[in-house]
Design goal:
Layout (H helix, E strand, L loop, with lengths): L1 E9 L5 E10 L4 E11 L4 H14 L5 E6 L5 H4 L2 H7 L1 E8 L6 H9 L3 H13 L4 E4 L14 E3 L8 E2 L4 E3 L9 E7 L4 H11 L18 H6 L1 H10 L9 E7 L9 E11 L2 E10 L4 E4 L7 H10 L7 E5 L11 H8 L7 E5 L11 H9 L3 E5 L7 E9 L4
Parallel strand pairs: 3-4, 4-5, 5-6, 6-8, 7-9, 14-15, 15-16, 16-17
Antiparallel strand pairs: 1-2, 1-18, 2-3, 10-11, 11-14, 12-13, 12-18
Helix pairs in contact: 4-5, 9-10
């Protein structure tokens, strides 16, 4: 018998996203650590302070993060990554395909009024190019009849583009069981990026010349052109929140094959609209989590994701409601119809700031979750709102 512990945490950083999974074996030796996004809203000094505090308390200084997943490039999902890399060793960074469009990150600095943050993030990607694994765009028209190859991310060639829907393992010899990560990149089509680029580089500088890719890297120049850059995004009808990479984290086999495992989960949550912090013990064989970043989970997108993980979607027991609970990004009906899963069997959580100016989470999303019987929880900047799940996995091998 082999035993593992999984501790899955959504950290309380307010209007942002910062999630971690930590596996240990039965001798409490660390097997691997995974992080999905690391950011918080910059509008509140309190929230950025909380982010820094959570980064420092995440792991022991000098520990290794085997995979850092980056869902997309909004500041509230990436502005803590430099601190993360300073404190911990990051083996691989899995993110939507970006290096050929790095100018886009600098443009986002003006779009979200966080010029320095996004410029620093672009420099971070440049300085960690050997660790980058870029995921190619998913197609909603893909055929899902053929399984993607399963890869060992440890030795993956960073010059290759990883196809969406590929099963990833960490490659550790001490991780022989059936856990995998499946990234699905829903970035903008290249045609839309090209249209945005054309609008951006038609912007005139004070000297009468057009903005260039070199000048867009200069925060002082971009800052003075913030309104023009925002107009370029508007003219291109380019929205950033629809570009999130969704990641499945869970068993790579169907639940029917769990006959040789016993699973126990203990969760600590802060319930939306009801600030009670408590432990909720339950038995479950649905141990997978679907991380969604700020994805727009419309009907086509839900069908696409369901197609990529069709054989193992029944493993989903935890769902991150995308974009802090925005009604523009999530529909209970779309999710249930595509996945053929009832949300009353799934723990749903959203990350958001208590007094955020966007009024997240949407009362419609919360009401719909309630009417469908879903357990719904909120992770805010309050310490007691931390999502905490402990899964004990015992694997009995056939003789």
């Amino acid at each position: 018998m082999t035993e593992f512990n999984l501790v899955r945490t959504a950290l309380p950083v307010g209007q942002g996203a910062f999630y971690c999974e930590r596996f240990t074996d039965d001798t409490t030796k660390v097997v691997h650590n995974i992080v999905y996004d690391c950011g918080a809203c910059d509008n509140s000094k309190n929230e950025t302070h909380e982010l820094s505090s959570e980064i420092k308390g995440l792991l022991k200084k000098g520990d290794t993060i085997d995979i850092l997943f980056i869902s997309h490039f909004d500041a509230d999902h990436v502005n803590g990554i430099e601190q993360l890399a300073t404190r911990y060793n990051i083996n691989k960074i899995v993110l939507p395909e970006i290096t050929k469009n790095l100018w886009y990150i600098y443009a986002l600095g003006a779009y979200c009024s966080q010029f320095t943050v996004m410029a620093n993030f672009a420099n971070f990607l440049n300085s960690h190019s050997k660790q980058l694994v870029e995921v190619g765009p998913a197609s909603e028209e893909d055929s899902f009849e053929l399984e993607r190859d399963e890869i060992d991310i440890t030795d993956y060639n960073s010059n290759k583009i990883l196809p969406s829907g590929t099963k990833i393992r960490t490659g550790k010899k001490t991780n022989p069981f059936f856990w995998c990560y499946i990234p699905m990149n829903y970035t903008k089509p290249q045609t839309e990026l090209d249209a945005l680029k054309a609008n951006l580089f038609n912007i005139k500088l004070p000297n009468g010349q057009n903005l260039t890719e070199e000048e867009i890297k200069d925060a002082s120049i971009v800052g003075k052109l913030a309104n023009e850059i925002k107009d370029a995004f508007t003219k291109s009808k380019f929205t950033t929140n629809s570009t999130s990479m969704v990641v499945y984290s869970g068993p790579s086999i169907a639940k029917v094959n769990f006959d040789h495992s016993s699973l126990y989960a203990r969760i600590r949550f802060h319930k939306i609209w009801n600030p009670l912090c408590y432990y909720y013990p339950y038995w479950s064989d649905s141990t997978a989590c679907l991380y969604t970043g700020d994805a727009v989970l419309n009907s086509k997108r839900c069908n696409s994701i369901s197609g990529y993980i069709r054989r193992i979607k029944d493993n989903i027991g935890i769902l991150q409601i995308p974009h802090h609970g925005s009604k523009s990004n999530f529909s209970v009906d779309n999710f249930e119809n595509a996945f053929k899963l009832e949300l009353d069997d799934i723990f749903c959580f959203a990350s958001y700031g208590i007094n955020n100016r966007y009024r997240h989470p949407s009362s419609k999303v919360v009401t719909d979750l309630m009417l469908h019987g879903a357990e719904r929880y909120g992770v805010t900047e309050e310490k007691d709102s931390q999502f905490y799940e402990h899964v004990r996995i015992s694997i009995y091998c056939r003789s």
